[in-house]
Fold each of these.
Amino acid sequence: MLLVAAALAFDVPDPTCTGSKVTFTSTLAEATTWAWAVDGVKVGTSDHVDWKFNDPGVVAVTLDMDTPSGAVHEDADVEVLVGPDVTLAGAIVVDAHEQTDYDTTGPDGLTFSWAVTGGTLLGDVTGPSALVEWGEQSQGTIEVTATAGNDCAAVEHLDVAINLPEVGDGGDTGDEPTDPGCGCATGGAPAGAGGALAALSALALLRRRCG
């Protein structure tokens, strides 16, 4: 088939970094099929492809497409930069209203941003550590984005289980109500009555006393 010349027909993420997923997207509207390859290895057949680079360097990304006018071949040399290697540590089982510290480890020179669900960030939210007060939801999350000077970023995430406070069911306390007119229990026979005859006698006595 005829090779159709065209401007670069897919988007290249900028920056492209190790450790982070990037998406390459075809921009040729008339294309009907797509075949992506990274360094000669086929990686996808839709109009976009997600990829994660493990090593820095220059990588060849190619896209072959069919169009009504013929075949189109596109290629680009993509520079893959070194992304920051960051870890996030902290409790993943907490109590409601507990204040919990979360810490990152990684190289110097990073900038940080934090996000949380199911709780509230307290104090500084731009440093390598964060303090969270958890709310009254059964689940929460905490996420940190660490960005290096080359604009490469790493995102770390923790799912957090939140123990909720116990709530009383408002049930029966076990105490028998009393009649203020005579001080007698209005329920059945008094506790401790032995045998059926004793229970009947006690009940009859209560009825005479309480009217």
Amino acid sequence: MTIVDRTEQMVRFARPILWNTDDPESPYSVGGTANIVKLLDEYFILTARHCLDKEAEGLSISDCCIPWRFGDMTSDTIFCHIGEGINFTIKEDEGPFNGVHVDLCIHRLLGPSDSAPALEEGGYLELHPYMEPKINDQILLTGFPKSQQAIDDGARAIKAICTTLQGHIEATRDSYIHKFVSPDLRGLDANGMSGGLITSNFLGNLLLQGLCVQGGRNLEIDFIHFIDGNHLHSMIREAFKALKERLEGSEASG
């Protein structure tokens, strides 16, 4: 099912989302996929909004643990220092996607939570101007299905299993939402793929084509909905501008 080896450079932008539980016997819960992206020499965390917005569950962004580096996690793992973010909700209880979480968030990545080397090339996805995939491009979905993450509570360790599937894109009647279709989604509990990125492999370079909005538990379907790349790039640019203006405003007032 994993068609790209989890150690390959090309999908090392993806990270599992963990939460501190304050339970010494079970210190972490896991769910959702985050991604480190780079735009104009700045780094951001890109994911679905409902993956990080857990206020209703009594959790804040300070409880969230996103690994600084791709790979298995131990008690010594360094996490991301997550900065201010911008949220988007595209659909809410309307139309054909009623009940589907169609949202995203973009947070500034301030650096590692502790001393750690800078991210190497391949440890993030560099964003380029949007370009539609070509007919022969390889289309990929990368994420961390919750059912495949093995947590060793005693050792405070997690064997993070990153899954990358190959498929194709099918348009829907909605201008924002399309389907990523793959036979490998059948039989996969995709809960946890929310926030995962759809990319196209263009001459060995990955280009952002969308963001998965909801990973379902229906094992009979072979598709997953995602926000299409054109709209996603527009929202990223909007968030980048807003975050830059907020930063400049706080520096001016300080």
Amino acid sequence: MKIEFEKFYSYKSKSSIPAIIGVPILLILIPLILLVVVIFLVFAGITSVFSNKRKNTDRIIDEQKPYFLIKRDNFTIELVEHDDEEYTSLEDYWYSDVYDEDTTLYLAKTSPEIPGLHNKFITTFMKEIKDGVMLQIVEYPGEMVSVPSSWIIYLNYHSLNIERLDEIGPYLLYNNDQDMYIIEGFNQGGKIQLKIKMPGGM
């Protein structure tokens, strides 16, 4: 299937506040920030006493439940949190440079095993299109490369063949709810927008 993307990038601008103005502002903000941190820690300490037992129980129950990104009659994709060296390295970069609020990077376990997807690290992004789905794989582009990148792949629902469509870079992708032909993405440094171009439409 021929699917192409028109890419648009935007980057966060650096602060234009002059240094001579920034110093007094920092002198005012630092005590306020410290006060907020102290209040938060006290509040968190009190509430954790009452909530830890419930959270631990919920966590055990959640960890026992398999998390399926896709579950169809002829195949499944289960998302698994992993702890090997490669996953830790990818996750550390992902949290520091892409997204640091929730877990969005998982090891894909497919049944049956799908070459090019099984045991690959993917995000929770998925977009159904034609007779298949687009997913996002995250990996290092080479052995000597320290910064991971990501690719959009296409998985055919019937043949279970994988096709790599385009390299996107270290962005967390998500669907645009207003336009089915637009995919959005972001990291700590900026945003990306992908416009899907394909013959015959979706």
Amino acid sequence: MFRILITFIFTISFGFSFAQIKRDTSYTTIPEEPPIPENVIGYRADYGWRLFINYFGYAELITDDIEAKYNKALEEGANKELKIEMTKLGLIQSKYNLYTTFPMTIADGWHKVVVTDNAHFCSDMKVLVQNNNIVKLAAEDFFPINFSAPRQIRNAKNTITIKKFYAQKLVTVDVYFMDDIEQQNIVEPPQKYGYVCFWSDIKNAEDIIIKIQDKKIGKVPLQSTTEPECFSNGMLCKILRPGQYSLLALGRGTIVWRGEFLIKENTCLKYHLGKSNKAWE
């Protein structure tokens, strides 16, 4: 009898939890090649996307004064990475300058390239080429980047303008096709991706700190009075590779939200942080 009672309680609890999770999350299908919303945070949640950190600084990602020590550690890590990347840039430029002949055009398809602003970062990325023009750009083998490329590729090199998400700044960068100078190489396309967008309708929603895989990605910007659509103002959104992720959200005082969520290809997961699914530590 006792075993039956325990089984019954477990079943009810599990069913309630599953129903609660289902009610507080919802998936929306997005276009296979959606525009990149400006409130989406990049892949490296522990210190932001590399381009953000090295070029634009830290204040726009982490602004609380109480996190000064954390910011200092981030700065030291970014400065170390910057030195490594600038050394890499010197080697790339030296090698490029040794060539005297280049392919007339770059073949259609995905190519591995080196992208740099010649001062603050030098990163391996992938580009899609069509008719000797760069038409797509992806960092970290999945992260799509907004850009414009007004000119065609020449001498296995191109100059494009990257659009930054938060402050709408434009950055001019050089793209080197180092792997295509001697023999052109087509590579695999970048991985697919999905989004998660957190929102809350509780008072003091802007105090909620979001952690994914135990790494802080930011705070909910503001309270939403009604359920918003993906990428709306008031949401904290992040682009991720498909897979299972852990969530820890810290509200005011001892309020917390714990759980896991699944990122699916070409979908946006809306995750509600509300009264019905909060807990206390």
